[in-house]
Structure formats: structure tokens, C-alpha cells
Target: Pyridoxal phosphate enzyme, YggS family
Amino acid sequence: MGVLEQYLSLRSEIESIRPDNPSTIIAVSKFQPKEKVVQAISAGCLHFGENRVQEGWDKFADLGTAGVDFILHHIGPLQSGTLRKYAGLYSYAHGVGSVATLEELRKRLEKDRWKMGIFLQANLTEETSKSGFSRSQLLEFLQDRSSFSSEFCRIEGLMTMGPSSGEEGMTRNVFHELNEIRRDYFPEAKLSMGMSGDYRIAVSEGSDYVRIGSAIFGERA
Model:
């Protein structure tokens, strides 16, 4: 199947899992050619995710100039040298994994006067290969989150990734845990959980956004 068919099939499946409030698909277009992005837009996809900030500019800047509707999410780890490149294009960042990173981003966005929605990344698997707040760090911050206020850097949600092993039971536990944290500490938060290998679990566990690459675009060349 092509991109259009893959996207429509995926959307239909997600709607069948949770028909009352289906997850929003973020099409992860990193390393994919611009032609496939255009195909996904033609299929009705609105949200896209890029891992590398500059790659997003290379693909999406002229689409925005041409009046094409899209919402761009940065889904990779934040790097100091690229924060200045958010303004003018990116609407969300999903990889804010520490208070220090959050403060650095806030200062940059306020300087640029550019508004973004922020997802705090939680490392609930405690794997050293993953960045993010530990459970205890996240709860400590959320209990006092009212002390962090910015018109331009708005904390809107929580993000996590399943275990690298991909084991279904562990994955479900991680996603369920983040949903419980939302319920108990940040009820208005949106959840960003699930990728091509585990999105079905994420949808069933209440994720608002799923980050899907290969299930839409196919494997990268």
C-alpha cells in the first residue's frame, strides 16, 4: 500500500480501538522524502513529527509559505544549539526531559516570542539509553508545576516510550502508569505514547497522540 492507503488504514484501526475519543496520529516523517509528506497531507494528515529540527525546516518551510495546513512536532531530544530554530515553524516539543532543559527552552521562546506546547518526557522504564524525568522527579515537578508559568512555553502534556525490549506486558504497564500519573497529578494533560510497534497498546491505554513512522511511510531507505 502507498502512503495514502497506509494512513487511512491506520486511522481506521485507531478509531476502531477507541471510537469515542481516538488518538491523534503524528506522522513521523524523519528521513522521509518530502514527496511522502505531501502524500500524507493529501490523505488528511495534519500532525507531523521530526527528530531533527533542521530537517523539519527543509521539508515544511515552503509548505507553510504556500499556505498548506500542518502542525509540526519536534519529537527528538532537545539540543541547546537548535532551540533558536523552533520559532516560525514548530508548534510542539515532546522531548523535554529535565527542569534545566525546560528553563532553557522557556528563555529561548520568550526571547523569540514564539509559543509552543511542551510535553515532559518521562523515563518510566529507567533505561539508561533513554532520557527524561524519573518517576520521582516528574511527580515532584508536577506537584509544584504552578510555579512554572510562561505565555510562550506552555506545559500541555506528558510523553513516554515503552521498553526497548518491546515486551507487551511491560509496555502496557508503562503506558498505564503514565495515564495514572496524569489522572492523579495533571488531569488536563495530553499524553504522547506509542510508536509503530506499540501504538495499539498506547491507544487502549488512553494516549492522546501516537507517533507513527514506518506504519505510514514504510521503512526508511
About this structure: The two ends are 16 Å apart (CA to CA).
